[in-house]
Amino acid sequence: MSLHLRHETPGDAAAIDAVTVAAFRDAPHTQHTEQFIVRALRAAGQLSVSLVAEHDGVMVGHVAMSTVAISDGAKDWYGLGPVSVIPSHQGRGIGSQLVTQTLADLRERGAAGCVVLGEPGYYSRFGFRAEPQLNFPGVPPEYFQALPFGAALPRGNVSYHEAFSARA
To answer: Of 10, 87, 123, 128, which sits with the fewest C-beta atoms within 10 Å of its C-beta?
Structure first.
């Protein structure tokens, strides 16, 4: 399989929408708004990292990363997601490659850490784990996980950019 990861370019928006819709079409635990979230993050200039995966020149995956706010005032923390891989290419490690590269990009820019709202069994392989002192109200705590890049772990409630409320 010839897989190529690269940063989003201005002409990628429609293909990213299509990949995101396809990836979440049959997914449990979703409101099917992921493509709207990515669009709203892009429009607000809040896509800190936006990587696409291409297989033989066709886009098959995407990952978004944006800053988060933590109530204790901690800086340089990011939220991972959405992570999208079209169903015909799921289970081949493409999502893992996207996440790994995105986390490497964050480390290179000196980020303090990353949070994710997702399946613990999947995200624990990257070092994410539930941290009792970091909260995302309204979700079971085991599904909200953090990955600090240094020794310091903030304490408080985490909030994502308002783009995560996008519904259209």
So the answer is: 10
Residues 66-86 have a mean pLDDT of 97
> How far apart, in whole angstroms, are the C-alpha atoms of residue 1 and residue 56?
8
Q: How do strand 58-70 and strand 49-55 relate by DSSP bridges?
A: antiparallel
The distance of Cα 25 from the centroid of its chain, to the nearest Å, equals 17
Arithmetic mean of pLDDT, 142-152: 94
**How many degrees, rounded to 5, is the angle at CA 117 between CA 114 and CA 119?**
115
Name the strand (E) or helix (H) holding 53.
strand 49-55
Contact 77, 154 (CB under 8 A): yes
Q: How far apart are the first and last CA of the chain?
A: 35
Where do we find the tokens 């990363």?
65
Question: Where does the pLDDT of residue 32 fall: very low under 50, low under 70, confident under 90, or very high at 90 and above?
Answer: confident
What average pLDDT does the segment 68-76 reach?
Answer: 97
Please give the pLDDT value at position 38. Answer: 97
Task: State the average pLDDT over residues 139-161.
Answer: 95
DSSP 114-125: EEEES-HHHHGG
- What is the rounded CA–CA span in Å between residue 123 and residue 154? 20
Are the beta carbons of 79 and 65 closer than 8 angstroms? yes
Distance between CA atoms of 25 and 88, rounded to whole angstroms?
12
